Amino acid sequence: MAHHALVGTAGRAARLGRAVGDPAAVGGVVLLLPDGEPESGRGPSPRAYTATLPLARALARAGRAHGLVAHVVRYRGRGWNGADAALAEDARWAASEAVRRYGERVPLALAGHGMGGRAALRAAGHPAVVSVVALAPWLPPDEPADPVDGQGGGEPEPVRQLIGRRVLIAHDTYDTRNAAERSYRLGERLKKVNRDTCRFEAHTDGHRLRRHRDEVAALTADFVLGTLFDRPFARPIADALAAPPPLGLRMPLAAGFGEGAGRGRR
Q1: What is 206-254 written as a DSSP string?
Q2: Dihedral angle of Cα 148, 140, 253, 173, to the nearest 10 degrees
Q3: What is the pTM of this model?
């Protein structure tokens, strides 16, 4: 692994996108991990990168007073590619690069969508990572006869790297691309070894969570600011973290979250 770049076999290097926020006064960093594909030899997706920028801007805006800086990670390619777990490797490199740029004392969060959500979960073992947000994460079949689609499952997605991190998962139950029940089952396994886990559900939105875009941005911002800067969580997040399964893993993502009515103190 190079110090300044992670270069793949096709000669493409992973990079941090331009800083969103003020890099001269950094109090915390959030790395945004775009969506990807299970298998692909193609280069990174400009569409997935662009689709992630609004959330980066929303987070930097919400955390301006704390010195929060956001970077969207530019992968070497768009494929996870089996045991290579290329997107997770890129996420780990990005975490190390953030430490190199901003110092070891600056807390770090990972936030990803789709396959980027899986990358965020997998790369959470990096020592600089404090918290993880996985939005509609892509997860492989995890049971011998997965009830979601009947496919045979392999090894369940690992969770040990998440111990000691605060974790938020958000998923829509109508997601036809990334099965929401898999993220619920992951949450169940994770909650047994890591109490600081919560999961929110929407029920009308599909994979991209477009109708709840503002609520997702507010939820992510509240969680990231709470975990990086010890700011009190909104009441729904505090309740979800405290509640045992299934309640804390099926917390409804209510319309209007973040508009004032949902805020409370721990």
Answers
A1: -TT--TTHHHHHHHHHHHHHHHHH-PPPPHHHHHHHHSPTTGGGSEE--
A2: -20
A3: 0.90
For β-strands 13-16 and 6-7, DSSP reports them as antiparallel
Rounded mean pLDDT, 76-101: 96
Handedness of CA 134, 137, 143, 148 (dihedral sign): positive
User: What's the gap between Cα 192 and its chain centre?
Assistant: 20
CA distance 123 to 134: 12
Burial class (CB in 10 A: 0-12, 13-18, 19+), 235: middle
Strands 129-135 and 108-113: parallel
pLDDT in tens, 142-163: 765 555 555 555 678 999 999 9
Bridge partners, 168 (sequence order): 133, 198
